[in-house]
Amino acid sequence: MPKRAKKQQDAVPDRVTGQHLLAWGHEAGPWFKAALAAAETVRAEGGDLAAIQAAVAAQAPPPIARIPLQDGVPYAALIEAETPAEEANVAAVRETMDRLMRTPTVVGGAVMPDACPAGSVGTIPVGGVVAAKGAIHPGMHSADICCSVAISVIGDVDPRRVLDAGQGVTHFGGGGRAEGRRHTPPEPVLAGFAANPYLAKIGEAAVSHFATQGDGNHFLYVGRLASTGEVALVTHHGSRKPGAMLYKQGMALAEAHRAKHAPEVDRANAWIPADSHEGALYWDALHQVRAWTKANHTAIHDLTLAALGIDAPRERFWNEHNFVFRRGDLFLHGKGATPAWGDYADDASGQVLIPLNMAEPVLIARGRDRAEALGFCPHGAGRNMSRTAHAKRVAGVPPAEVVRRETEGIDARFWTGDPDLSELPSAYKRADAVVAQIERFGLADVVDRVEPYGCLMAGDWARAKRAWADKRRARGTDRR
Q1: C-alpha torsion angle, residues 254, 256, 262, 266 (rounded to 10)
Q2: Quick one: which of 461, 459, 457, 467 has its CA closest to 420?
Q3: What's the whole-number average pLDDT of the chain?
């Protein structure tokens, strides 16, 4: 470097600015204000550039300690493969769990018999359980926060009337209810949203999506208890748009922490420190969303009963299977896994619901709280292949014929009118195999079954949206 250029570079600036600090290799932050004041004091006293830089460095915060990945933590794989497709599925589940278990907050894990991959390698699978210390991982409960199942035992009533009534009052598909057809959540639920800064701006979605069920594998199912013959209504759904909006905020908080403290960790496994201010607010927000979701189930059940002229069910309980639970100092993340200990929540009934598929019973079980399973049991039958792979399996057969073969003997309905073939029984693992593995691994005791009469699901929502768009264009009202 020429002597003149070097002399200019080493010259004391007329005024030290933030740009100088950045050029000297410092990371911007609130401490810049004090550092610039110190630099100006030294400069005014005639200090050279080295003295000024030393004054700045004295104000800098200590370097951030990067948290490395850990060696893989052992986990329990409580799943067995019976076919080549299941072997491939188990191998994929193991691959993603092996990577996930290197996350530095993780201290334990388990895989349920209904497990299947649910994203890129390293993402918690459906049927996965992960125990973390001092950390809440939004990616491990997913956008469908508090996906859950609820049952109302109604009594001696025509099951077709119940299914008709449920179809008349519920709402499936994307989006919320239109103005004039909305139902308002209970006041304590809305107050809980208003009091939490992560939920305060979600109030409109909490109303518009109330008493709705979404799409995918969510359902309204009617059947009879094997023990008494009484008719029961079962619903399955999560927290809809309010939960998805909270999840987005949670992932942003977690990513900011990961990028700063643990950049080696997969984005899907970023976390919020549970003992931080943000962690406390997020933990509260999760439980406010849980209260909304429980009220959502209750609203659909009560609307159905009102349409039937019935005041109240004989029995009602529910349980979630996409959530974060706390036992001692551990945060247990269940993704498509059901808590199987009696007091996992204040409103736990001691019983859990495990749906299998639309043509099979919904199991009513009591969990065994097995330590190796971290206290969990399966949430359903699970998949052995993606929706796309299943579509290829049934390609070439008329959809009506596929539905007829797989739903013979039950009243299978689809909200849009078009069946969603990816939700038919053949898309899922064999129900009897999952039940056998629940027993083999000592995860729960089946105490009753809801034998199927019929089931209502969203149907082919993507096709419905295309059809509605075509109609709007034909009328000249497409706003795009």
Answers
A1: 60
A2: 459
A3: 92
